[in-house]
Amino acid sequence: MRNKPTRFRSGNTASPANVSPQVGFFSDSNFKDLYGRFSYRFNLEHDASSRNEIQAAGAIGPRDHTYLQLGTFYFYGRSVQRFQGETAVLTAREPFYRTGGDFSFNYRTFNLFGLYMYGHDKNLLVNPDGTGFFSGAPAHFSGGFLEADYLALPWLMTIMRYDRVQSTADFLNGQAGAPQNFFSPAGATRNRITPGVQFLIHANIKASFEYQIRPQQRVFDADGNPVTNPFRTNQAVAGLEWVY
């Protein structure tokens, strides 16, 4: 069994704008974003003598320990957005956080893993007089994915992935921005199913193919009324990778 410690990192760094006007930028943020993660792996090998041994490739391909890994994470920060007010540029420092959990289960040549995340934004709005901000209804969303990988042959891996996002704010923004945004969500829930396959042609050459059943969408008019039935713009993706 392995215990991974919690890790933290900070962000919002700045580079001096007077060093190189072409590539430099300035940030007046005095707050550091915080990120923490903790995960723990349970080694599920029945044979106690093999739990600490290194698993390597054999006649049927690579093999890892049978394990279950559970994890959780939390991210807190403040986004900086600027708006043109009545007399000056207004700066909004909007707090937000993201939290969730993940897991990974591995049994020989089969791996099932996934993640769930919940997001919350304070949602600051500009005052009608253009002199400041007030707190609107908080914007929040949730979603995640579940994926299964199976090494059917030493050179062939099959993949099945399911993604889902629940966001009322994205749906309402899609309606409001319909004249400018053709790809508007058909509802507050968006999901995608992606089957795929990968072939190891050579030790340094891999080919892959996947078909994405994408989220439903529709076209809205300027008043936010749908003018089409829900439809999907599915797509097929093929790739060839090599290293040298």
Describe the structure.
The relative contact order is 0.10. The chain is 4% helix and 55% strand. The strands form three sheets. Strands 1-2-3-4-5-8-9-11-12-14 form a ten-stranded antiparallel β-sheet. It folds into two domains: 1-146, no CATH class; 155-244, Outer membrane efflux proteins (OEP). The longest helix is centred in the C-terminal third of the chain and has 9 residues, at 168-176. The protein has one helix at residues 168-176, and strands at 2-9, 34-43, 67-84, 89-107, 110-121, 124-126, 133-135, 139-153, 156-166, 184-185, 189-202, 205-212, 217-218, 235-242.
Uncertain segments of ≥5 residues (pLDDT<50)?
Answer: 1-26
Gap from first CA to last CA? 36 Å
Number of helices: 1
User: Which whole number gives the mean pLDDT?
Assistant: 79
Helices and strands, with pairings:
Elements: E1 2-9, E2 34-43, E3 67-84, E4 89-107, E5 110-121, E6 124-126, E7 133-135, E8 139-153, E9 156-166, H1 168-176, E10 184-185, E11 189-202, E12 205-212, E13 217-218, E14 235-242
Quick tags:
244 residues; mainly beta; Outer membrane efflux proteins (OEP); two-stranded antiparallel sheet; 1 helix; 14 strands; 4% helix; 55% strand
Short synopsis of the structure:
With 244 residues, this protein is mostly beta strands. The chain has 1 helix and 14 strands.
